[in-house]
Design a protein that fits this description.
single chain, 1 helix, mainly alpha, about 40 residues, globular, ATPase AAA-type core domain-containing protein
Length: about 40
């Protein structure tokens, strides 16, 4: 999962600005994302 998140946040790899929507109970992934990229529902 970590590598997938890093691929989506890398401008060089994600040239079309694709979005990834996922759910998780693991809070360690929050460190890989910016504050405005995290939504709680």
């Amino acid at each position: 999962m970590r590598n997938i998140l890093l691929a989506f946040t890398d401008k060089e790899k994600n040239k079309n600005n694709a979005q990834l929507i996922f759910t998780t109970h693991n809070t360690i992934y929050m460190d890989l994302l910016r504050r405005d990229e995290i939504w709680f529902v």
